[in-house]
């Protein structure tokens, strides 16, 4: 019979890629972790990890086992809360870094403060958000996807038994930092010209994440946006750092055209000139999973905010 402690050790080993690091996080010894993993492998009759020169890596069977282990640990935590009569509404969210979402979430929480809702929020790139929802580490994932990524994105969704619901579509926009030569032009939209790929090669960028799904052939690259040959100097998951750098340097950013009021105040932005220049915002869920009351409440709140911003 599988032991929950062994599964917890297995999950931490999988996420750290190191038995010694897992032992530190679990406040135990390396031999204890190794023993638990060996016992789990013998119990299941499969090899969960490959031993690498530096650390460990999940085998194909190990990756499959990891998904189920995450679900079992999550369900056991819910059952424990039920047994203690402590079933407060709880929602786990993964998302691409977004100051717009941050502002909406803070407002939602303030409006519902008396309801004692509980949340777990994790920021990451699109692929990681998908994996966390797939592996039952998050209940819902909010992502921004470029229009030209649609084919690759839909393939990944289908492969991982996930579904994506579109909430908003906007134009991919170039945001020059305050010390950038195009900043004043961006401030006066009547004089601003659309920015093309050749022009962007002259600038340095700060981005939340690179375009993870962009794997295009040379023919396709001529007509759509590509990170290739662009100088991404800083990658961060902090919107505070993003906004601070745009206000005080010449770095540029590419993102959707609807942003937080703080970012809009600092930077009006210039539309990008290339085919398929839309950015889609929406949420990822596991296929056939039901939405609970708290999730529906949050989604309804976000939809209303988007309607107000669109003037509808």
Q: Descriptors for this entry?
A:
13 helices, three-stranded antiparallel beta sheet, Arc Repressor Mutant, subunit A, 12 strands, 312 residues, 2 domains, alpha/beta, D-Maltodextrin-Binding Protein, domain 2, LysR family transcriptional regulator
Pairing-aware structural class of the strands and helices? alpha/beta
Order of helices and strands: HHHEEHEHEHEHEEHHEHEHEHEEH
The number of distinct β-strands equals: 12
CATH topology of the largest domain: D-Maltodextrin-Binding Protein, domain 2
Quickly count the helices: 13
Oligomeric form of this entry?
Answer: single chain
The backbone outline, from C-alpha atoms, is: globular
CATH architectural label of the largest domain: 3-Layer(aba) Sandwich
Main sheet characteristics: 5 strands, mixed
Radius of gyration: 22 Å
- Rounded average pLDDT: 82
Percentage of residues in helical conformation: 40-55%
Percent strand: 15-25%
Keywords: DNA-binding, Transcription, Transcription regulation
Organism: Blautia faecis
Protein name: LysR family transcriptional regulator
Pfam families: HTH_1
Describe the structure.
By secondary structure, the protein is an alpha/beta fold. The chain folds into two domains: 4-83, Orthogonal Bundle (Arc Repressor Mutant, subunit A); 88-312, D-Maltodextrin-Binding Protein, domain 2 (3-Layer(aba) Sandwich). Helix content is 44%, strand content 20%. The protein contains 13 helices and twelve strands. Strands 4-3-5-12-6 form a five-stranded mixed sheet, with helices on both faces. A three-stranded antiparallel sheet has the order 10-7-11, with no helix packed on it. α1 crosses α3. Belongs to the LysR transcriptional regulatory family. Pfam families: HTH_1. Residues 2-59 form the HTH lysR-type domain. This is LysR family transcriptional regulator.
């Amino acid at each position: 019979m599988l032991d929950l402690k062994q599964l917890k050790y297995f999950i931490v080993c999988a996420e750290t890629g190191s038995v010694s690091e897992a032992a530190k996080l679990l406040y135990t010894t390396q031999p204890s972790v190794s023993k638990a993993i060996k016992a789990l492998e013998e119990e299941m009759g499969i090899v969960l990890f490959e031993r690498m020169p530096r650390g460990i890596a999940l085998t194909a069977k190990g990756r499959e086992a990891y998904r189920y282990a995450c679900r079992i640990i999550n369900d056991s935590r819910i059952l424990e809360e039920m047994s203690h009569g402590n079933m407060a509404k709880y929602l786990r969210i993964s998302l691409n870094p977004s100051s717009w979402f941050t502002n909406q979430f803070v407002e939602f929480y303030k409006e519902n403060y008396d309801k004692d809702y509980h949340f777990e929020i994790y920021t990451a790139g699109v692929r990681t958000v998908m994996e966390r929802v797939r592996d039952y580490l998050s209940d819902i994932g909010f992502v921004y996807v470029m229009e030209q990524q649609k084919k690759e994105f839909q393939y990944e969704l289908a492969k991982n038994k996930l579904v994506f619901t579109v909430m908003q579509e906007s134009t991919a926009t170039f945001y020059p930092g305050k010390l950038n030569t195009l900043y004043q032009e961006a401030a006066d939209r009547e004089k601003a010209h659309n920015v093309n790929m050749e022009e962007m090669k002259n600038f340095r960028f700060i981005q939340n994440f690179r375009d993870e799904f962009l794997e295009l052939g040379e023919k396709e690259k001529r007509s759509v946006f590509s990170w290739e040959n662009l100088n991404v100097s800083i990658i961060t998951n902090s919107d505070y750092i993003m906004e601070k750098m745009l206000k005080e340097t010449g770095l540029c950013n590419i993102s959707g055209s609807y942003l937080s009021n703080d970012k809009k105040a600092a930077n009006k932005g210039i539309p990008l000139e290339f085919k398929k220049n839309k950015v889609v915002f929406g949420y990822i869920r596991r296929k056939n999973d039901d939405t609970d009351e708290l999730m529906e409440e949050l989604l309804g709140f976000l939809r209303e905010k988007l309607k107000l911003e669109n003037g509808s």
